[in-house]
Request: fold
Amino acid sequence: MRVRIIVLVMLAGLLPCLVVLFGAEKFYELRAVELRTAEIQNQCTILGNQLDNYSYLTDPTSEVINANLAQLTNIYNGRVMIIDRELEVVKDTYSLDEGKTDVSENVVRCMMNGETTNHYDRKNHYIEVTSPIFEPGGEDVIGVMLASVATDNIEVTRQIILTQGGIVVGIIMIILAVLSVFTADRMVRPVRRITKGIETVTEGYGDDVLHVDTFTETRKLSEAFNKMLGRLKVLDESREEFVSNVSHELKTPMTSVKVLADSLLEMPDAPVEMYREFMEDIAKEIDRENQIITDLLSLVKMDKTGQTMNITSVNINDLLEQTLKRLRPIANKKNVEVVMESFRPVIAEIDEVKFSLAVSNLVENAIKYNHEGGWVHVSLNADHQYFYIKVEDSGIGIPEKDQPHIFERFYRVDKSHSREIGGTGLGLALVRSAVIAHRGSIKVYSSVGEGTTFTVRIPLIYVAA
Ligand code: ADP
Reply:
C-alpha cells in the first residue's frame, strides 16, 4: 500500500508536469516559427517590389538590391534565390545555383498561382518561403523569390526550455517524492496499528480494544473490529462455560457409578439384594449419562440450522396429538391430566423432527414439574401468518428471577429438585434453538405455586435465511 501510494502520488505529479513542459516547448516552437515566417514573408514582399523597380530579373547586377539581399541573408542566416519565369535561378546569395533551373514544388506553385508559400522543415531546422514577383503595375507573375532561413536559434531556445523545464520538473519530483513518502507513512500508520492490534488479539483475547481514529474509515474499521471482538469474547466465554458445564454434567453420573461400584468391591460378601439395588442405581446413572449425550447431540445438530433443516408441510394438529399420545403414559403415572384444544386445523412448513422434539420437551416439562393430580393444557391456534402453541400447566412454577435463564444450557432452577425429577438442563435450550431455527419466538409466563405457560409463535411459511 505504501509503495502504491508513493508511485501514485509521483505519477499524479509527473504527468501534468510533463504535459506542461512539452506543451510549452511545442507552443514556443510553433509561435516562433510562425513569427519568423511572417517576418521573412514581409521582407520578401518588400524586396520583391524593389526588384520590379530595378528590373532585376533581366539584369541582376543592381548593387542596391544585392546589398539588400545580402543584408537579409545575414540577418536571418539564410539564403535567397531569385528565379525568373523560365524557372532559371537568376540570383543565389550562395552563388551555387545561378543559371540552374529550380522546379521544386513550392516554386512552381508560386509561379503558377502567384501565391506565397511557406514550409517548415523541422528535421533540418529551416523555413522556406516563396514569394511571387509581379510584373510592374500588373498582376502577372514574372518571377519567384525563394528564401530559406535557418531556425537554429529557435532550436537552441527550445533546447533551453527543455533543459531548464526538465530541471524544474526534477526538483518538483524530488519534493513530491519526499511528500509522498511522508504522506504514505501517515496513511499506512493507522493500518499498521490496526494490524498490530489484530495480531495481539490473535495471540489471545486481551482487554485491549482498537482506537485508531486517524481517519473516519479507520475509526469505523476499529469500531467494527471491536464489535466483532466483543462478540467473539462472548462466544468464547459461552463456549468455555459450555465445555465446563458439559464436563461437569457428564462427570456426575460417572462419579456416582464409580462410588457405587467401589462400595460393592469393598464388600466382597455383600448380599445379592444389595448388588441388585446398586446395579439398578448404576443402570439409572448410565441412562442419565445417555440422556445427556443424546440431548447434547440434538442441541449441536440444532445449532447447525441452515444446513440441516428438513422442511415439509406438516399437519400441526396431528403432530400435537401424536406427541401427547406418546407422553400420556408418563402423565398418567403422575396422575396429571393432559388436554389438547385446537381452534383450527393448521398446516405449516416445519422440520417435523426438530419441531416435535421442541413440543415434546415443553409438554414433558409441564408434566415433570407438576403436582400430583395437576393438569396440562395444550392449545393450537393460527392467523394468516403464524401459528401459536400454548403449553399451560398447574405445576410448581418458575421464580421470576430464574425466568430469564431457563433457556440457557444446563440451567436448572432447583438443582436438587430437578435431579430428583430427572433432566439434563438442556431441554429448554433445545426448544429455543428449534424455535429460532423456524424463525419463531417463545415466551414464558409463570408464578410460583400456580403454574407455568409457554407460548410459541412460528411462521406458517418457512423463510430460509
Ligand atoms: P431440565 O432437563 O432440567 O428439565 P430444561 O432446560 O428443560 O431442563 O428446563 C430448565 C429448568 O427450567 C428446569 O430445571 C426447571 O427448573 C425449569 N422448568 C422448565 N419447565 C418448567 C415448568 N413447566 N414448570 C416449572 N419449571 C420448569
